[in-house]
């Protein structure tokens, strides 16, 4: 056994099943160690940034540690955007990089850079291992920190260290599963804390429940709590799908990718005097008005102490399993649901609009183009409890936030803080490999897709039945919308269907005359390869982001 074999055994022991990476000479000993076993799979991505985004998406979906790897020099530098994205969205990712041999470090050798220093500027923990006996404590610290704090960390490994033999009787390199680092699991809050928060909620005039990504799995309990409080439920974009969006208390998404056209959602927030937040990272859209000053009480519920808001004052805070918190609060409120006519009216207005869009038919669209809203209402019918969704960053994100209606607690994975274009395709790979018996479905724009188009080859190589929907309008719409004179935002696009087929994927195009139901049924059929759906969208059709002043009519 050598050091690389130990690292693979350690990762296997803490539950890692894939390493997303791109090879290079300094990490060849590690790749050889993976080849010698069958429990961890090496996933050959086409770019290091995509490897980081695939691992990040997998970690967000599962809450478990995910791993990506790159070589020295440009390989580690290419990691940066994906790792920053993971860190900002609190994904527990371990990024491993190779380094040139220790005797070649620090004196201008080929591809030698100080990777630990470089990545320490963007990550909370970034270390270098230049001696075999450093490895065990550094690896344990890195994994424990990433897991416990739900953050992204980096460990650089010299190639000579990776290939160093380890004696069979060396106790330092023994692995005892009883003493491996594990994330802290808190107990539910004490009964007195539940009583205090329930009393606080009873004294509020109007409470709004806000749901974020960390509340995954808590949808039914939060819906019951909302009924007893008479409270509307609004989600952040990464919390979309956690609560059944056909439930009458749900009011959609709010935030930069929220519902700019639904004034009732904004009015509900404005009338509220308290926000009850479950697992929400970005509280600003819910607590503040246009002047960015906190205007509402915050009662924050979090699974761990390190995600408690530092920016805003909390009236009360409950820390522990979010399911238990929602159940505990609901039990202390009246059994009889509280009726709130304004919530009911807002929900009915939304449902009427969705019904109108669903029946708008082909006549209301240009024959060369499909209307995004119409397509998304069609897509809704194919999404079930085994669907996993990824949204890229762009105009399509706003359309999806508004017109996807998720009823089965499907996870929605997004680049929430950084808004990274090109996130969807690598993320689909990470999700599909984590849950092979589910179906990963992504929506991307034509600009974001072309940033990572090579990853179609990865999905084909690993026989992943992902579905990627590309909104093709030939323009970077969200940027163009802000320009007085459109410049530098029009795209020269290839034939996406032909391109996907050249990679070995299945593909089809949708325009204003396509039988969408038939094509979606084809895409969702059992298969062993990706399916790309190119949706031709009118380049003059725009939907505004919620915080922008300039509004472009939707037609």
TrEMBL record:
Signal peptide per UniProt: none
Domain Thiamine pyrophosphate enzyme central: 197-327
Domain Thiamine pyrophosphate enzyme N-terminal TPP-binding: 1-117
Protein name: Thiamine pyrophosphate-binding protein
Family annotation (Pfam families): TPP_enzyme_C, TPP_enzyme_M, TPP_enzyme_N
Similarity remark: Belongs to the TPP enzyme family.
UniProt entry keywords in alphabetical sequence: Thiamine pyrophosphate
Keyword NADP: no
SUPFAM superfamilies associated with the record: DHS-like NAD/FAD-binding domain (SSF52467), Thiamin diphosphate-binding fold (THDP-binding) (SSF52518)
UniProt-listed InterPro entries: DHS-like_NAD/FAD-binding_dom (IPR029035), THDP-binding (IPR029061), Thiamin_PyroP_enz_cen_dom (IPR012000), Thiamin_PyroP_enz_TPP-bd_dom (IPR012001), TPP-bd_CS (IPR000399), TPP_enz (IPR045229), TPP_enzyme_TPP-bd (IPR011766)
Residue ranges of domain Thiamine pyrophosphate enzyme TPP-binding in the record: 392-535
Cofactor requirement: thiamine diphosphate
